[in-house]
Write a structure and sequence with these properties.
The protein has about 280 residues and is an alpha/beta fold. It folds into 3 domains: about 140 residues, P-loop containing nucleotide triphosphate hydrolases (Rossmann fold, 3-Layer(aba) Sandwich), CATH 3.40.50.300; about 70 residues, no CATH class; about 60 residues, no CATH class. It has 10 helices and 13 strands. The strands form 3 sheets. It has a 6-stranded mixed β-sheet with strand order 5-6-7-3-8-9, with helices on both faces. The chain has a 4-stranded antiparallel β-sheet with strand order 11-12-10-13, with no helix packed on it.
Length: about 280
């Protein structure tokens, strides 16, 4: 199957700082998680893929189209749903009015069809009963869901979501995962997140970034396997960084402490070890 979205040797700088350097990736149907610490280049990559930021070097293609060309960029945007890290909002609009405004920008011209589509996406994010509530009166989690509703307009073939679960409570996060898993069955979904739990429960594939480059690409199981033989449990606090587990034992990563027994590695363990000791300590 041809990938929906590809980048080759992508580079982007901001002054003297290099945010992306030599990044090459391909994204196909399904849900891919993008993990990395602050400053890793995730948001810069997301913005380039969403066609809101041009690279300094390298090539990007979506649906076989080149976003460097204005007409092809518009064609990509018609098939793209994008949730930025800090979505803007008009506080004096109602939820319905705000989503309808975005629907107009997305060229849904027929009024009846547009209203039906606005109601559909508000229902998808459980905001149907808040359609006539002013944005300023919505909670932070509701505003995040409202931004997701805007990204879902037009049933896009490609969804790019930057930190979509920020501000969601556990029940909302569960519903969000159910929605994305359903959407990922028939289209390409890319989400940037700090939540390894989202990756474990939702993503078929994960990309880990650090200092502007890709340090891992594979399945969540393969990421967890990066920590095989490096997860330890002790009954007394070991040296270095550790945390106490619910059963009263102490869990640590890396070198085996005295009298330790092996622990089962998880996605978070593999992720932390890929980032290096200073990130584990953080």
């Amino acid at each position: 199957m041809e990938p929906t979205l590809t980048v080759h040797d992508l580079t982007r700088r901001f002054g003297r700082r290099t945010a992306l350097e030599g990044v090459s990736l391909a994204f196909g149907r399904g849900v891919t998680g993008l993990l990395g610490p602050n400053g890793a280049g995730k948001t810069t990559l997301i913005r380039v893929l969403a066609t809101t930021l041009a690279p300094d070097a390298g090539r990007v293609a979506a649906f076989g189209l080149d976003p460097a060309d204005r007409e092809q960029r518009l064609a990509i945007r018609r098939r793209l749903g994008y949730l930025p890290q800090s979505p803007g909002a008009y506080p004096h609009f109602t939820a319905f009015e705000l989503v309808e405004y975005v629907a107009i920008l997305k060229e849904i011209d027929d009024r009846r069809a547009r209203h039906d589509e606005v109601r559909r996406v508000l229902a998808e994010v459980d905001l149907g009963d808040r359609a006539h509530t002013k944005v300023r009166r919505l909670s932070g989690g509701m505003r995040q869901r409202l931004a997701l509703a805007q990204a879902l307009l037009g049933d896009p073939d490609l969804l790019i979501l930057d930190e979509p679960t920020v501000g969601l409570d556990p029940e909302q996060r569960m519903r969000f995962r159910a929605l994305l898993s359903r959407l990922g069955a028939s289209r390409t979904v890319l989400l940037s997140t700090h939540q390894t739990e989202d990756v474990t429960t939702l993503c078929e594939r994960v990309v880990v970034m650090r200092t502007g480059g890709v340090v891992f690409e594979g399945t969540p199981g393969e990421l967890a396997a990066q920590a095989a033989g490096q997860v330890w449990l002790t009954t007394t606090p070991p040296e270095g960084t550790f945390w106490r587990t619910p059963d009263g034992r102490y869990r640590t990563l890396g070198h085996r402490p005295p009298a330790a027994v092996p622990g089962e590695p998880g996605v978070e363990d593999g992720y932390l070890l890929l980032l290096g000791g200073e990130q584990v300590a953080a």
